[in-house]
Fold this sequence. Notes:
Elements: H1 2-18, H2 22-34, H3 40-58, E1 68-76, H4 81-98, E2 124-130, E3 135-142, H5 144-148, E4 151-154, H6 166-180, E5 188-195, H7 198-207, H8 220-234, E6 249-257, E7 265-271, E8 276-283, E9 286-290
Parallel strand pairs: 1-2, 5-6
Antiparallel strand pairs: 1-3, 3-8, 4-7, 5-7, 8-9
The protein binds iron/sulfur cluster (SF4).
Amino acid sequence: MRKILQETFLEMIRRAATDLPPDVEGAIRRASKAEERGSTAAGALGILLENVAMARAESRPMCQDTGTNTWWIHHPVDVTAGTVKAAVLWATRRAVRLGYLRPNAVDSVTGENSGDNTGVGQPVIHLEQRARAGMAVDVLLKGGGCENVSGQAALPDFSIGAGRDLDGVRKAVLKIVDFAQGRGCAPGVIGVCVGGDRVTGYELAKQQLLRPLTDRSPDRVLARLERTLLKESNELEIGPMGFGGKTTILAVKAVKAHRLPASFFVTVSYSCWSLRRAHVRIARGKPTFSDTSFLLKAGGR
Ligand code: SF4
């Protein structure tokens, strides 16, 4: 099992780093057609698509920032957490040696680079044991520039007239998108968590980035919020890389979590256009790769 996990996780990293998922590429392609022909926005999106094709053809990373290596792994009782973590660390180090990942993990006090993309809290591994046989695994390579423009609001926010209601949520999310002004390499995809605490808000918002861009929340209220936020984000006309244009955000994915009556957090996990993810199910020692998560249902966790 150890060898299967190591090789499967390595292949997941390679796919995520070098092969943009078809739903994300399709959204960029549609956006480039929607922008005015000859505009800077259309040109920027065209360059992104060329870059995606080159990375795929050469199996090279799409971006010099290969992102924070973040895993969600559901494993059966007979595969220990230690075995799974060791396989992730092996795959990460090997991916650096093969050039799929850049050595990006630095000591936060000394600035020293660990050289192999591992360190305290790196990679990020979320483990959950399940009663069923087999494993389901998602990996997300989350860029640092877009992590910088992710944000969290505590409602009410009187500076924008945002109360503790859905309209307040809408205003808080738009404030975060507006603040980014194309930084974090727009067009982006945003995961939104309504409620939770400060930690679960970020966790659940980031997890929404695993959802296909074409799905919508099964919760009608959240589905409407996703549509409204997508439309109003793009009406800001910040555009690709902040050059202006119709495409600031490619998709919005929202989820909700219970909260204490005393707090109302709204959390946005902002992903750049380079939304790098890979998914696999391992059954009877055989991996099956997929373009979409085996675990994450729309709007769920
Ligand atoms: S935000 Fe994304 S596209 Fe921009 S530099 Fe970072 S990883 Fe690359």
